[in-house]
Write a structure and sequence with these properties.
This protein is α+β, with helices and mostly antiparallel strands. The chain has a single domain (about 5-245), classed as Penicillin V Acylase, Chain A (4-Layer Sandwich), CATH 3.60.60. The chain has helices at about 80-90, 95-100, 150-160, 170-175, 195-200, and strands spanning about 5-10, 15-25, 30-35, 40-45, 55-60, 65-70, 110-115, 120-125, 130, 135-140, 210-220, 225-235, 240-245.
Length: about 250
């Protein structure tokens, strides 16, 4: 996943709000949003190649999401990063304890957000020790937490503006489908060719072979009810499916 924005305890009626885009090669086999067959309390997609997930939430409010750290040429980790999120969603440990038990050397560069209802924890094997986050709006792309990449700054600002409109979701999906390309002089330098820097600078990425596969909005109300709305996409940004799962139904 290449973009996650989280509102943690900043809205009086919705303590957790997440807007996220997962960017991936279209050829990678994926199961769209559903309750997991082997863990019905968990709601999320599944990576059918490695068995993990990029993002999910459980009925009890356990939330997990992961992004990779863009570092071309680095050796691949022994374990899939998606196993980190899957493991937490099906575990019982607190977010802090789970994060503390991760052997980061087993994985390629990652950023991980873990929420257990009591705290939201950020951990990364490229950014020091795990740490709980204070109430606020946070963003992740493919560097570190709140790295000032243009698309992340824009997404975080628009997310904050959309928050007061909940339960109206339209502004969040307007944000997640923004295809604007950043001017070359403002692009980050992450070691990939300039053509890729341009492509990946958009909030919503699209091409023939690689792009935004899923746009997901999660919001939890003060009573613990959870709504997950996900749109799935194919090559060149073609909408394939729209799914909504709510624990209040």
């Amino acid at each position: 996943m290449c973009l996650i924005v989280v509102g943690w305890r900043v809205h009086p009626d919705y303590p957790l709000v997440v807007a996220a885009n997962r960017d991936e090669f279209y050829a990678r086999p994926t199961a769209s949003l559903a309750r997991w067959f082997d863990a019905q309390e968990v709601i999320g997609g599944l990576d059918l190649e490695a068995g993990g997930t990029w993002l999910g939430i459980s009925e009890s409010g356990r939330f997990a999401a992961v992004t990779n750290v863009r570092e071309p040429g680095m050796a691949k980790g022994a374990q899939s990063r998606g196993a980190l999120t899957r493991g937490f969603l099906t575990a019982r440990s607190s977010a802090g304890d789970y994060a503390a038990g991760i052997d980061g050397d087993q994985y390629s560069g990652y950023n991980l957000l873990l929420g257990d209802g009591d705290e939201l924890v950020y951990c990364s094997n490229r950014d020091g020790n795990p740490r709980p986050l204070a109430p606020g709006v946070y963003g992740l792309s493919n560097h570190l937490l709140d790295s000032p990449w243009p698309k992340l700054l824009a997404a975080r600002q628009r997310f904050s503006e959309a928050l007061p409109r909940l339960p109206d979701e339209s502004a969040f999906f307007d944000l997640l489908t923004d295809q604007a390309i950043v001017a070359d002089e403002n692009l980050p330098s992450t070691g990939v060719p300039i053509e890729w820097e341009r492509l990946l600078s958009a909030i919503f990425v699209k091409s023939e072979s690689y792009g935004t596969r899923a746009s997901t909005l999660i919001w939890q109300d003060a009573g613990g009810n959870i709504t997950v709305h996900e749109n799935s996409f194919g090559p060149n940004g073609q909408l394939l499916q729209s799914s909504v799962i709510s624990t209040s139904e």
